[in-house]
């Protein structure tokens, strides 16, 4: 990671960090066959993303990383190792610090700042849910205040949290409450809400889209980049999609987006959950990422192999 480009600031002056752009891989958490975290796989994992997929930024301990199934201590150990292995290699290591407990989120936010992460992100609590956008902003504000010099991203994922507040409403006036606010990870399918967020946002914010199968629509709406699980193994192809879009070659961008959709439709028809996704990454990359943690059940090997073969058939050599 590069050093933070943070300037001295008063309470009302925004943090200025490097803007997150391009593809960001939401990393899987390597576990041993017994279900313990396996830090030894993180170094080859970082190298694989850089060398094989051309992906230079990561989002750790999020949904794909089974962050909500890990203890606070496990999340700290993982964040340390991802930051250590990414140092001077990766452009951005963003650490998800959201928890059901405000105190746990604050502890993880402080820790991420201490270890030199490039940013922190927070999901909405989903057991006791915020009833209004203001309630959610207050929660986010309290987490951000624990690490006031860290670029802060709100992570919107209503299908998982059950919190269906519009992101545009959550962003209303957020820079006044959270001077370190730097952007949004929008993992929802409502492109109108996403577009309104883009329209509202100042130029230094990063609007990162999180539904991989409809990235092209979000790019047309003004997304600065994308965070997703499939970029772990589809990164090189989706980099070509983004490059084609940037050059105005929409037919090529569409072709690649449709290929990604074909792969995911095939996977969804077989039953595509995080356990399958994790096993698919192991098949494609050769990394030993292990099983998911309960209550998720391991993926039958033939299912992941079938999807990997379909991926190879559609995209050819990566």
What does this entry show, briefly?
The protein has helices spanning 42-53, 72-86, 102-114, 133-145, 158-161, 167-171, 174-177, 191-200, 215-221, 231-246, 250-270, 274-285, 301-315, and strands at residues 22-26, 57-60, 92-96, 119-123, 152-156, 181-186, 206-209, 225-228. It is of the alpha/beta class. Mean pLDDT is 94; it is low at 2-14.
How would the blueprint of this fold be written?
Layout: E1 22-26, H1 42-53, E2 57-60, H2 72-86, E3 92-96, H3 102-114, E4 119-123, H4 133-145, E5 152-156, H5 158-161, H6 167-171, H7 174-177, E6 181-186, H8 191-200, E7 206-209, H9 215-221, E8 225-228, H10 231-246, H11 250-270, H12 274-285, H13 301-315
Parallel strand pairs: 1-2, 1-8, 2-3, 3-4, 4-5, 5-6, 6-7, 7-8
Could you characterize the architecture of this molecule?
It comes from Oncorhynchus tshawytscha (Chinook salmon). Belongs to the DapA family. NanA subfamily. Its EC number is 4.1.3.3. The protein is globular, with a radius of gyration of 18 Å. The chain has 318 residues and is an alpha/beta fold. It has helices spanning 42-53, 72-86, 102-114, 133-145, 158-161, 167-171, 174-177, 191-200, 215-221, 231-246, 250-270, 274-285, 301-315; strands at residues 22-26, 57-60, 92-96, 119-123, 152-156, 181-186, 206-209, 225-228. An eight-stranded parallel β-barrel has the order 1-2-3-4-5-6-7-8, surrounded by six helices. The protein contains 13 helices and eight strands. The two termini are 26 Å apart. Helix content is 46%, strand content 12%.
């Amino acid at each position: 990671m590069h050093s933070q480009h943070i300037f001295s600031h008063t309470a009302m002056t925004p943090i200025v960090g490097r803007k997150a752009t391009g593809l960001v891989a939401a990393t899987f958490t390597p576990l041993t066959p017994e279900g313990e975290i396996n830090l030894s796989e993180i170094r080859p994992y970082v190298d694989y993303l850089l060398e094989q997929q051309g992906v230079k930024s990561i989002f750790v301990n999020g949904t794909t990383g089974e962050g909500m199934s890990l203890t606070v201590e496990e999340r700290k150990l993982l964040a340390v190792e991802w930051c250590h292995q990414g140092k001077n290699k990766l452009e951005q290591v963003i650490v998800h610090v959201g928890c059901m407990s405000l105190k746990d989120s604050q502890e993880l936010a402080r820790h991420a700042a201490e270890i030199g992460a490039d940013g922190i992100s927070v999901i909405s609590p989903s057991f006791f849910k915020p009833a209004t956008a203001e309630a959610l902003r207050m929660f986010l504000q309290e987490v951000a205040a624990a690490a006031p010099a860290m670029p802060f991203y709100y992570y919107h994922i209503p299908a998982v949290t059950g919190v269906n507040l519009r992101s545009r409403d959550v962003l209303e006036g957020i820079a006044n409450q959270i001077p370190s606010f730097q952007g949004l990870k929008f993992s929802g399918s409502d492109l109108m809400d996403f577009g309104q967020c883009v329209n509202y946002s100042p130029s230094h914010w990063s609007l990162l889209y999180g539904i991989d199968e409809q990235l092209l629509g979000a790019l047309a709406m003004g997304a600065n980049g994308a965070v997703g699980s499939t970029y772990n193994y589809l990164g090189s192809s989706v980099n070509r999609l983004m490059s084609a879009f940037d050059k105005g070659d929409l037919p090529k961008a569409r072709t690649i987006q449709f290929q990604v959709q074909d792969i995911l439709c095939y996977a969804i028809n077989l039953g595509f959950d995080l356990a399958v996704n994790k096993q698919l990454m192991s098949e494609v990359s050769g990394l030993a990422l292990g099983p998911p943690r309960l209550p998720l059940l391991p993926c039958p090997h033939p299912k992941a192999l079938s999807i990997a073969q379909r991926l190879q058939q559609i995209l050819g050599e990566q």
